[in-house]
Amino acid sequence: MYRIHSTASPPASFPVAATQCLRRAARRFGALLTWFWIVGPVLAATDGKFDSVVLISIDGLRADVVNVATTPYLAGLKRRAWWVSNARSVSPPLTVPAHASMLTGLQPREHRVLWNSPRAGAYGGESVFSVVRDAGLATAAFIAKPKLRFLAHPDRVDYVNRHAPNDTGIVALQTIVADVQREWPRRPYAFTFVHVAEPDLSGHRSGWMSLDYLVTVKRVDMALAELLAVFETTATNRKVALIVTADHGGEGFRHHSNRVPVREVPWLLLAPGMGCGEIKEAVRLHDTAPTALALLGLEFIGAISGTPIAPLRGTDGPPLSAVSRRQISDNCR
Fold first, then answer.
1. 92, 109, 113, 130, 259 from 120: Cα distances, Å
2. Which conformational region is residue 28 in: left (phi greater than 0), alpha (psi within -120 to 50 degrees), or beta?
3. What is the total count of domains within the chain?
């Protein structure tokens, strides 16, 4: 069983107060992890397409920060998921262009969303939202940064959370979690986009890989367990797949370069019954959209640059016959 060792010594640079805070959090988190690992596998195994796909984007999460020490829950999920530790972000590695690629399967020069500030209107091109809605299915978006609402066209998204009532309009992590806990079980959303802003905010405020950043990432990791608990409660009635990734990393106080700490992001697919393991082929951020649609049995009508990840194409990993999927599922719990 995967455990958090709350007595492990943190880096020497951690202040005593921060150390005590992390240890208390680890004890609380350990109880939640025990439920996941002992009571049963997260989500429901499947021999076919999924009823729901949830895409969680953790803004500013560097690839090299995903490890047992800093993100114990996310690192533990890798044991039951398809994953690549260094997926490639887009150029420029900015929040709005990157998420546009994540949701459209296109590179920035193709979708032409090149700005990184709030803009009136909404994206009118084809996206995961539009394909899912055209198939008669429901969609939802839980967005932390107001500028990303441009990608959630009101005619294509059935539910979008509200702005935060402050000057920035940024929705806090626990508000996002609470909104998902309240809204997601109410309706069978086929595609759900969840955006979390805190690591990026911390990186700009204190620097990527600073104490503030690492503590923030650990807090987001704990919230990820809370989010998956929501999806687990409906797993007996809906087959749910989960994708976790990020738009970009960061270095110093910025993320404008194409250096490795900025351009490499984590990417993970938890699709029970579909296998698990490290993906050997390169994964690019704009591969996320066609992967999400493939899990739902859908595809883009227009041409795109992205492709479903190799395990879904049958070119990497185990075959996807019904018998194989059941065997794989047993090995990936």
1. 21, 20, 13, 19, 31
2. alpha
3. 2
Query: Do residues 79 and 116 share a domain?
Result: yes
- Tell me the two tokens of residue 255: 């993320």
Same structural domain for residues 171 and 267? yes
pLDDT(269) > 80: yes
Do residue 255 and residue 298 come from a single domain?
yes
- What is the pTM for the complete model shown? 0.83
Q: How far apart are CA 201 and CA 199, in angstroms?
A: 5
Nearest in space to 310 (alpha carbons), one of 270, 279, 286: 279
Decide: 255 and 59 in contact? Cβ < 8 Å.
Answer: no
State the residue range of the domain holding 275. Answer: 41-331
- Cβ distance 221 to 227 under 8 Å? no
Residue 220: which CATH number?
3.40.720.10
Amino acid letter for position 180: V
At 48 the pLDDT is 56
